[in-house]
């Protein structure tokens, strides 16, 4: 009941959160004058290495050589382009007018990002929505517990693949909800704990606000998912 009230009400940021989505804001700021792209369409090596060090996206001794190696940066770029905030212009990645407006408006940027937190893939979006609902209510949740909960829900709903009629596998379920937590991590909104064999996930203060805004938008906006 408390979650329902939180989702129905307009979301406001906590007073001590100054920058809700710093990686996305930085990325857009770097596109003000455009960024050169390689022949394969990737961001330059210097840009990639700067991003890796700035946001702690790289844990290895040798720095990343390309955008393909830095998945979190790739996610931020994909998010910016999916939202229409950035686009390719020849061999450069540039801001769109919508991107410039979002960069200049703190409230607009985080709320736009929140509404695109869930992936476009229907199954992944449905499981991502449930994952957000769990995370906003707890300080930390083990990955194994999320896997078990979502597997139970998938079985009860009777979700099956449209092409084969087969039920989703454990791998399918894990892949689906990780689409949302991976983006939360890239946006610096996810807190992690536990060992590598069973990570636990929680939300930062900003992460909880962004997650609630996403759920609020899903609850009050038009729905195309059978879960709505």
Number of beta-strand segments: 6
Task: Give the CA-CA distance, first to last residue.
Answer: 17 Å
Number of helices: 10
User: Which regions contain 5 or more consecutive residues with pLDDT less than 50?
Assistant: none
Q: In angstroms, what is the radius of gyration?
A: 18 Å
Biggest sheet strand line-up? 1-3-2
* β-sheet strand percentage: 5-15%
The percentage helix is: 40-55%
Return the structural class. Answer: mainly alpha
Question: Which whole number gives the mean pLDDT?
Answer: 89
Describe this entry's structure for a reader.
By secondary structure, the chain is mostly helical. It is 52% helix and 9% strand. The protein has ten helices and six strands. The chain has a three-stranded antiparallel beta sheet. Helix 4 crosses helix 9 and helix 7 (122-135) crosses helix 10. The longest helix has 17 residues, at 170-186. The radius of gyration is 18 Å and the shape is globular. It starts with a helix and ends in an 8-residue tail after the last helix. The model has no long low-confidence stretch (mean pLDDT 89).
Write the layout of secondary structure elements.
Elements: H1 2-8, H2 22-30, E1 35-36, H3 45-55, H4 71-82, E2 86-89, E3 92-95, H5 97-104, H6 106-115, H7 122-135, E4 141-142, H8 143-157, H9 170-186, E5 190-193, E6 200-203, H10 205-220
Antiparallel strand pairs: 1-3, 2-3, 4-6, 5-6
Helix pairs in contact: 2-4, 4-9, 5-6, 6-10, 7-9, 7-10
Name its key features.
mainly alpha, globular, three-stranded antiparallel beta sheet, 228 residues, 10 helices
């Amino acid at each position: 009941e408390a979650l329902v009230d939180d989702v129905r009400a307009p979301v406001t940021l906590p007073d001590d959160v100054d920058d809700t989505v710093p990686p996305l804001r930085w990325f857009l700021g770097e596109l003000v004058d455009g960024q050169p792209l390689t022949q394969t369409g990737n961001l330059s090596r210097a840009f990639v290495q700067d991003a890796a060090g700035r946001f702690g996206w790289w844990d290895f001794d040798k720095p990343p050589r390309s955008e393909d190696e830095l998945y979190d940066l790739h996610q931020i770029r994909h998010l910016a382009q999916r939202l229409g905030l950035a686009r390719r212009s020849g061999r450069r990645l540039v801001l769109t007018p919508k991107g410039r407006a979002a960069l200049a408006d703190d409230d607009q940027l985080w709320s736009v990002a929140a509404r695109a937190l869930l992936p476009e893939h229907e199954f992944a979006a449905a499981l991502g929505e449930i994952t957000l609902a769990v995370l906003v209510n707890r300080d930390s949740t083990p990955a194994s517990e999320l896997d078990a909960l979502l597997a139970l829900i998938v079985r009860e709903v009777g979700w099956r693949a449209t092409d084969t009629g087969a039920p989703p596998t454990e791998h399918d379920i894990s892949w689906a909800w990780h689409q949302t937590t991976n983006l939360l991590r890239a946006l610096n909104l996810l807190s992690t704990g536990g060992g590598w064999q069973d990570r636990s996930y929680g939300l930062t203060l900003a992460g909880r606000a962004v997650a609630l805004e996403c759920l609020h938008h899903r609850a009050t906006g038009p729905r195309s998912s059978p879960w709505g």
